[in-house]
Amino acid sequence: MTKLNKDILKRYTSDDYTVKDERYVTNQFTNEENLEELREELKADWDVNNYTNHNKDLSKVFETIQNEIQPAKSNKLIRLYKVYSSIAAILLLPLISLFVFNNLKNDYQNSNQTLSMIQAAPGTKVQFLLPDGTSGWLTGGSELSYQTSFKNRHVNLKGEAYFDVTHDKDHPFEVLGSGSKIVVLGTRFSANMWPQNPTTEVVLESGKVKFVPANKSEATILKPGEKLIYQKSSDKCVVNEVDAKLINAEVKGKLIFRGESIDEVAKKLEAWFNVEVILEGKHSNAYKCRATFKDESLEEVLKLIKLTIPMSYQIEQPVLLANGKYSKRKVILKANQK
After folding, report:
1. Are residues 42 and 158 in the same domain?
2. Could you give the C-alpha distances from 298 to 58, 123, 286, 312, in angstroms and in order?
3. Burial bucket for residue 169 (CB in 10 Å: 0-12, 13-18, 19+)
4. Residues 272 and 330 in one domain
5. The model's pTM
6. Which domain holds residue 79?
7. Higher pLDDT residue, 110 or 330?
8. pLDDT higher for 321 or 18?
9. Residues 185 and 76 placed together within one structural domain of the fold
10. Number of alpha carbons in the 13 Å side-chain half-sphere of residue 290
11. How many Å apart are CA 158 and CA 143, to the nearest integer?
12. CATH number of the domain where residue 296 is located
């Protein structure tokens, strides 16, 4: 287990830090081994500075930061990190990594080689705005990076994201991931480019995109309302007509159920909230769930789901494991007995 460097953390919280210090601190937010110690240090720093309103419910403020934060200049980034750290300490979150926004913008002389990075921790959705005006959403566990200068309008994606691309016919926008790339001019689409997945998926809502597979074989042009699935192993593309707005709505931060059974509901909840869902008892797949959620908490979603599916639920908080890591929250869905 790597010990947390408290000297670097102290320099960072006192605004007397180097670029290397900043990178070290931001990386700690995704280092599960040091999360507990990091939480304690941030709480101690909060207490020492005599901040007030310790008992105030700041969950709504936290949600706003989590969902609406955008890349900004370095001094604004520092303030946002302080806000996030303070709120996390007050709420005593078991996992500080509910949200991580990492923009490594700095003032290096050779800025063309400097990368900016946006990360969304598991169970979160992050809204972003790129230097050219392109906006979008990043799903939990995903990472988006690009050169700070952004002259070539190229981004690297590891995970899943939704893009609303600003039109510029002279500078096409490119998304690179899993060895493949997507070339666009101005359009709205989502891309699923997890490196570990056997497929890459693109769903086009409007405009036109060109998908170029990893081996640079023949490109595929998509029209609005189409979904492309690229099989990496066989180097084959399949294109189907879909409800693109419905699919992309989930990438943009809406949890949507359109007639799913309890088994399908459980899978969506696991991915959306980064939890482990356990089904107990005999659940009937005859009951279907239809609902749309945006900013509701896990418990609020469960309360509404149980109005259409006969069940009760129990939420178990994370526990510290022997290896020093925290478990996921557990959600137990118990079928109501007749």
Report:
1. no
2. 17, 10, 23, 14
3. exposed
4. yes
5. 0.61
6. 1-107
7. 330
8. 321
9. no
10. 3
11. 5
12. 3.55.50.30
